[in-house]
Sequence to fold (437 residues):
Amino acid sequence: MKPILVQGGRVIDPASGRDETTDVLLKGGKVEAVGRNLGRPDDAEVIDAAGRIVAPGLIDLHTHLREPGQEDLETIATGAMAAVAGGFTAVCAMPNTDPVCDNQGVVGFIVSQAQRAGKARVYPIGAISVGQQGARLAEFGELVGAGAVAVSDDGKPVMSSHMMRTALEYARVFGIPVADHCEDMTLAQGGAMHEGTVSTRLGLKGIPSAAEEIMVARDIILAELTGGHVHLCHMSTRGSVDLIRRAKEKGIKVTAEACPHHFTLTHEACEGYDTHAKMNPPLREEEDREAIRQALKDGIIDVIATDHAPHHYDAKEREFDDAPNGIIGLETAFGLAHSELVESGLLSLPDLIHRMSTLPARIFKLPGGSLALGAPADLVVLDTATPWTVRPDAFYSKSRNTPFADRALTGRADVTVVRGQVVYQRAAEGGRPGTVR
Ligand SMILES: [Zn+2]
Ligand SMILES: [Zn+2]
Fold:
């Protein structure tokens, strides 16, 4: 493996507080040196990063890769490619595959498929319950032993408080978080979108914010009871933000994520029965969107995650009520976050990298998220200046389900390096030539 010298970029490393124009040398799969005038090793590849941002690779704590079981929607290889094209050097794969990732065999399969693909690192998340049936706890020790970094029944909520309590106690023994999809099914049942003025106008059954908030409150109470670490997935309501704020003030071990769609869109996007706006949790009201943005600024919500959820074109063409939930997100997350949060002046660029790289690594105890000497050579060169337009037909993901088609954004990956190797380099589009030489 050749050394890589990344020259002349604005190096932002929130882990060390570094933000300066300098060079980074990657060697032997690690960060070898950071500083000016490092000298070019004879055999080194050079990445000209002048005018661009050099940051630790982005890390997504919440991705659905669909393999095993639904390889027509996404595979580990296509998902890992979409990830690096989006600037992510690592993604955590949710376990709602077929079969469910509830044993060491499936965890091992995901790890080996990811190695074969050789793009982004993929960390499996094991199921909380066997088959995600909510009846019997999976063998956390076995899952962790095979490489799982967290447990979750995402896709389905953990309805039994007893099971959530046991999961938190058991996960604590292994030092891993329990990531929960907070939804009280008895309240959400039959709902297709957020319960509010738009659902009334469209004549669709709504999902009240309370369906999420009840479970957020429960999870916080159980985290306090057990001393376990609960990670709250895709927070969408202002009430959830209030609950998390109070829990953090009390020192309860709770972390939370928000997805770009929840700080970008509102339930108004469902007008015209656009199924690309159908997700779970649903798009909420303007006050919720505002609260999520503010919570990201204040650190009440720790990280930005994608909830990348590939679906078929046909499936999304169904009636709104019958269409599946979710959108893909790996290739738009950074652009949306940069355009919505940084360009608006809400977050600084180092803040954003903190929430998309450094903190995700810390929360799930993953390698990366830092450009310290000896850290993994996982890095991204970002162009935050040149406007670009979302073109779903150019996605590396196998699926196209996004409500952001044709949206003009700033912020995207030019070059992505994983384990000291260039795994993605954006093709020049009549503008700047390729950067690796
Ligand atoms: Zn979920
Ligand atoms: Zn999910």
